[in-house]
Structure formats: C-alpha cells, structure tokens
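Same chain as my last thread, 332 residues:
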Amino acid sequence: MSDKEWNVDDCNSSVWHFLSGIWAYLRQLGELFQVRYREIPRTVCSLAGRNHRSLDLLGILWILFCLQPLLGCRATETSWNSWYDDLFPKPLSWQTRTKRWESSSHSTGYWSFVQPVSPSFDKTPAKNVTTQLGQTVYLHCVVNNLGDKTVSWIRRRDLHLLTVGTETYINDDRFSSAHIEGGQDWPLKIKYPQTTDAGTYECQVSSDPKITFLVQLNIVVPKAEILGPHPMYVKIGSSINLTCVISESPEPPMFVFWYHNKRMINYDKEGGEISLQKASDDSAISTLYITNAQPTDSGNYTCGPSNAEATSISVFFLHVLSGAQFGSIIEL
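reply #2:
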C-alpha cells in the first residue's frame, strides 16, 4: 500500500484498539490487587520496583501516548476526552465550575459583566451652592465605580490645584478634603469663605479620558435693616416696636444683640421683649417690643446680628401740652 493510500482512520482504529487493550489489562491488574481502577497509575508505580514487567507496560503506554500526535493518528474528541477523564478524573467541584463557566460564557450578558465599568458622577449633588460670608461650606462630588482612580478639586479662576484624594495642595488651610474612607462622596470643605472665594470649582477624576463635575459657589453678605421711618417718633405711654430684618442670610444668625445707647439690653428685664425667628430661606427677623414707653426710653437703638453689620435707629418722644395746638419733641 502506497503512502497516498494510507488511511488515517485505520491508524486511529488500530492505535485506539491497542491502547484500549492495554487499559483493560491494567484494569484487571488493579482488580487483582483489590484497588479502584482510578488508582491504577499509582498502583503500577508501586509495583515498578518489584515487577519489571509492570514497569515495561507502563513505559509502553506512555510512549504510545506521546507518539500518537507525531503519527497523525488521534482518536475522536469524544472518545479521547472520555478516556482522559476516566484516567485522570476531576473533583466534582471542578466539574461544576467548568459547567457554570461554559454556560455563563455563552450567555448574552457575560461580556458586559466582565468588562470594567468606568467611573461616573452621581447627579444628586447641587451644581449651584450659595453660602454666606464666613459660613463653612461643602462642595459635594459623588463618584460611582471609582476603582483605582483619584479625585481632585481645582479652582477654575486660576486653575489652582486644591486637593488630590485626601491631600491638600494649597497653602491655605481653609481648603481641605472632607472625604470619609469607604464613601463615594469627595466633598471640598471651605472654612470662613470670603467674597473672593466665589466662582467655579471643578471636581476631576483621573480616568482616561478625564471626567469633570463643575460646582458654582456663590458668597452672599448678610445685611441688617430696621424697618420704619428714621428717626421714629412715639408718644409717652405708647409702645415701641422695632423690627430688624437680616436679609441674604441662608443661615440665620446665631444671635442678635440689641443696644440702647450702647448698653446691651438683651438680659435687662426692663429693656423690653426680644425675639428672633427665621422668615424665609435667606432671611431672619428680630424684634424689640417695649410697652408703656417713657421719656427715658428715648435715644439710639442698635440691632447687632452675629453675621452682619449692626444697624441703628433713633427714637424721640412727642410731649403734648394741655390746650396747646402743637407738641414738643422730648429727647433725653
């Protein structure tokens, strides 16, 4: 028979029958020594030191195993895998993991699961923040799927790098990172903000490409004003009602001190009733109410909020003479 007429299938069949015969012999050998056929290779090796014939059979088996690819002869995939699994069985857990891997690799959502997820910003934090002069403020930046990337804060006005991670890169201790370990929020903390701190701040993630989140900071200066005509004229025995409005104040003042001729009257029992309440989102009201006013109550009254400059008003009394057409102003 020529080389061209050589049938590879005949070679496959011959070699496979030969290997099957050797395998049957080894299985009988294992049953002879009352061992499981899955332990035959170990049994044959243990016999090698005492039985040269067993060693020769094992050598022939492995030589034919190694020469089979060179001869171009191979068994079918199904039979070969069956023989290999029979000779070298895998634990059940490995087989289970293999089946799970194969089933998951053919599912449609598998590759979307294993692909890395890029960082992204949470849209919840405010992009426009307003605070009052001197009031500590936080600019929030929530990052999802940050991974091994870092978060930085940059002041857009002069492109000054403020923080990287939790480290500060500016010689101004008013700026710092308020990040809590394990959290997704990377807030920039600014203590005692001044009007010059107003502007745009950029939260940047070191991904490729970089992503940014911009926050506009507005600084307002609270103002105090006493309502009504200046000066104020009242009659003896009437009431004095002074209303002080603190506007452009997102946070109400911690306190409001009232002064009469430079003397604080907040804790004076005869100084009148004082109240403080929040009027709206950015304003507060403090009132001073004095009943049965007397000439000694005339003079200058000052409203001094903790977060704004003080404002004043002068109070005068009208004294009406009996039978007189006009009254006189009493000022003490």
